[in-house]
Structures are given as C-alpha cells and as structure tokens.
Write a structure and sequence with these properties.
Thioredoxin-like_sf, Glutathione S-transferase GST-6.0, 2 domains, EC 2.5.1.18, Glutathione S-transferase Yfyf (Class Pi), Chain A, domain 2, 5 strands, alpha+beta, Glutathione_S-Trfase
C-alpha cells in the first residue's frame, strides 16, 4: 500500500492507524501547493481532488477521505481492535465520532489556516471550535477514549485535530480532559513513530 501524505496534515491520522495496525506501507509525500509528489509525479493523477490522504492499495484501487481510510485499515487487522466489529452499535458510535470530528472539528479549523480569511471569520471559527471541543471534552471526562473505553481510530483522528490547536492560537487549557488525552495518545509508540517519520518531532 501507498499512503500519500503531507506532514502534519489530516493524513497523519491514517498514517498513525497504519502503524498501529502494523501493516506494510510506503509513504509518499505530496506538496499540496504544487500537487506534485516527492518523486515528481502529478498527484492529481492519483487523486483528482488533489488533497491528502489518499491510500493506494496493492491492486491499484484507491481510497480517499480519512474516516473511510482509517476504518479500512482497522478492518484489515480486527485483532488490533482499532474499530469495533461491523454491525455492532459501537461501530456506529465510532462512525458518529469520526463524522463529528470531520465535519464539526476538522472543518472548523479551515478558516484559521487560511491567510485570506477575515478576522471576523476566524473569530467565528474559534467560537464554533470552542463549542465542539467542549462536547468532546465532556465525553472524555468520563472515560479515556471516545468509544467504549477502547482506543480506536476515532481517537487517532481526534488527536491529530487537537495537535493543530497550538498552531492557530487555540488554547486547550479550559479542557484538562483534552490535554490529558493528547498527552496520553501522543506517547503511544506508533504515534511517536509517525511523528518522527513526518519530521514533526526529532529522534
């Protein structure tokens, strides 16, 4: 498999999932401005949308969109318990959280990373993000992880989105549960390995 990624972007979530699953894969870095890979390939020939993540399977089929990719990865190694079994209520809870993180948290960051966004737009985005983070913090206040007390791909995705906070001036201090969660997940060996591979930490 090949995972097309950009350092620190949302592609970090399936990158961590692949390492947690201990699956064999190749990392291919993409310049999101030029849409060219590190080997000079036109990334839009791989993913016409031009954004990461994109997972290319050994048979040439592709998957895009992080929540879909991480569930695919989890289902390749059910023994790792990175996702509840298909058909269970817990699996639908996992999908609920993946959708919430994608549409309510991930997307709320977009104006904060956009240099052309107005200050009013950014202030609105911070208000929305504040409310959504409070919702997740309330869930984590009663347990270590989002679904059934078991570490899952939803936790990986949440960890990645929380890691962006310091880059856009969002203070997580009001939510100790989120700070503790980030610290705990950040120490997992697979997470550390992914961060090192993307050049996000030294060592």
């Amino acid at each position: 498999m090949k995972l097309y990624y950009s350092p620190g972007a949302c592609s970090l979530s399936p990158h961590i999932a692949l390492r947690e699953a201990e699956l064999s894969f190749e990392l291919v870095r993409v310049d999101l401005k030029t849409k060219v890979t590190e080997s000079g390939e036109d990334f839009r020939k791989v993913n016409p949308d031009g954004y990461v993540p994109c997972l290319v399977l050994d048979d040439g089929r592709t998957l895009t969109e992080g929540p879909a990719i991480v569930q695919y990865v989890a289902d390749q190694v059910p023994g790792k318990r990175l996702a509840p079994a298909n058909g269970t209520f817990e699996r639908y809870q996992l999908q609920q959280w993946l959708n919430f993180i994608s549409t309510e948290i991930h997307k709320s960051y977009s104006p904060l990373f956009n240099p052309s966004a107005s200050e009013d737009h950014k202030a609105w985005a911070r208000q929305v993000l504040h409310a959504r983070l409070g919702r997740v913090a309330a869930q984590l206040a009663s347990g270590e992880y989002l679904v059934g007390g078991q570490f899952s791909v939803a936790d990986i995705y949440l960890f990645v989105t929380l890691s962006w906070a310091s880059y856009v001036g969002v203070d997580l201090a009001p939510w100790p549960a989120l700070q503790h969660f980030s610290a705990r997940v950040g120490q997992r060996p697979a997470v550390q390995a992914a961060l090192r591979a993307e050049g996000l930490v030294q060592g």
